Amino acid sequence: MTTATSSRALAHPERAEIRLESVLHALSDPMRLQVVRELAAAEDELSCSHFDLPVTKSTTTHHFRVLRESGVIRQVYRGTAKMNGLRRDDLTELFPGLLDAVLDASVRQERRLADG
Amino acid sequence: MTTATSSRALAHPERAEIRLESVLHALSDPMRLQVVRELAAAEDELSCSHFDLPVTKSTTTHHFRVLRESGVIRQVYRGTAKMNGLRRDDLTELFPGLLDAVLDASVRQERRLADG
Q: What are the structural domains, with CATH classification, of chain B?
């Protein structure tokens, strides 16, 4: 199997075009936050089909598009799979500590609600 | 002038009811982020009339309500003024480092765009 990227390139903001407000909006949804947490834990690209979100396929596609257009993830076609990777370097350069603070906050909240 | 709180109490989430997703959503708007930055810098309550946002009064009221209902700010009537304070203790306890990371990111972005 080749890993050649197809010509169906998806639009992404350049690093300088990424805006804090859009990143925060992208992270403000529980499904999208879950995707980001899984990508952060994987430290690798994951295919869209890897994620089993409790929403319709079109809603899943919407969530990934919001994450991509805000600059939180990078999406590339590899063969027939759409692969997703966290833009950790870009986010860390622009907003030091923000992504980790959000990820940590998400884990804390999950534990708190489970204990509650 | 007295500082007695009037009986027109406004609804706020308890600390345990504050949700990360709602906080991120509240912070994902440029106007609301500006309000939070001013409150953080003031380290004190500020009246709604202190803020001169380039939007209508009803939109301003909406933004403050989103901030209050998400748990980011506390609003109390003192006499005829509606005073606003950042719920820094609650946010720091729930989501350590998050508020400061967002505030820092906002300052960095402002500088970056000004330099651009």
A: 28-107 (1.10.10.10)
